[in-house]
Design brief:
Structural class: alpha+beta
Distance between the termini: 25 Å
Mean pLDDT: 84
Low-confidence stretches: 69-85
Radius of gyration: 23 Å
Helix content: 40-55%
Strand order of the largest sheet: 1-2
Number of strands: 4
Length: 161
Amino acid sequence: MNLFGVMDVSASALKAERVRAEVVAANMANAETTRTADGDPYQRHHVVFEAEGAESFKHSLVNHLGGSGVGSMRLGRSVTADTSVDGGVAVTGVISDASAPLRRYDPQHPDAGPDGYVSYPDINPLTEMVDLMGAQRSYGANASAIQAEKNMVASSLDILK
């Protein structure tokens, strides 16, 4: 991993957490949507993350330590290092929740069925807020990591003056 590899990893996490926050916001906004363009109630969405670089921890460690030399010797066999940046996260998709809609009795609602029940999305605002807080905390942690690396680079440049 090069000097800016940490920034690349944190940048990928920032992008992923932004998507997660947007999906949570869409879920919250549509918590009472009883009819979409398809005619069904809105369904909750989830973000699916995947680690970038499908390598083992051992391979990542060897790459981090330089590929050959001390790192390879400690691991017992030689594995060559590649130049790609591993350890990031990618959003592989946004999937719809398959849970059944909640049914509430409201015969006055325009989307009420003949029995008087209306189908609402199965969205719990408390669950969505917990997801949003998790995305916010992760976003802040990755922003702090980028700032720390920027400070380390600036300090290194000051030493070289």
